[in-house]
Amino acid sequence: MTRDEPAEESWTPAERALLAAALDFFGAAEGVIDFAGPERPRVRHDAAAFNAVRDAMRVLEERVAAAHAAGATLERIAQIARLDGEMVTLILERRGAAPSPAQD
Predict the structure, then answer these.
(1) How far apart are CA 71 and CA 99, in angstroms?
(2) Which terminal residue of the chain has fewer beta carbons within 10 Å of its beta carbon, N or C?
(3) How far apart are CA 19 and CA 101, in angstroms?
(4) How does 59-95 read in b/e, with b if 16+ C-beta sit within 10 Å?
(5) Nearest-CA neighbor of 89 among 56, 101, 55, 29?
(6) Which of 3-7, 10-14, 72-76 shows the lowest per-residue confidence on average (mean pLDDT)?
(7) What are the extents of the domains in the chain?
(8) What are 31-83's pLDDT values in tens digits?
């Protein structure tokens, strides 16, 4: 935790749900990467694992939109989910919840 980051106990329910979704997504993504092969890292061709990544990304996008609707800033969402700010903006635009320029 950095000095400007609130203690986890003060996180809102939307922020906690966002963190859980981000961890699930990154865990699912790890499942499609083979780090042990001779030409590492490389993508595993596993349909079930790819579907898990898609499902986890869908939930992550929902949680990004929910956190934004609950009042979390783009910076805070990016910080919690460990996503680039542009990615957060793209997710919100896709969901029709794009931030106003004043929120940036």
Answers:
(1) 11
(2) N
(3) 25
(4) bbbebbbbbbeeebebebbbbbbebeeeebbebbeee
(5) 101
(6) 3-7
(7) 12-98
(8) 898 888 788 788 888 899 999 999 999 999 999 999 999 999 999 999 999 99
Enumerate long-range contacts of 83-91, CB under 8 Å, 24 or more apart: 83/22, 88/64, 91/61, 91/64, 91/65
Gap between the Cα atoms of 70 and 46, Å rounded? 36
Sequence-distant (6+) residues with CB within 8 A of 73 are 103
Q: Encoding tokens for residue 37?
A: 């092969």
pLDDT of residue 34: 85
- Which token pair is 29? 């993504």
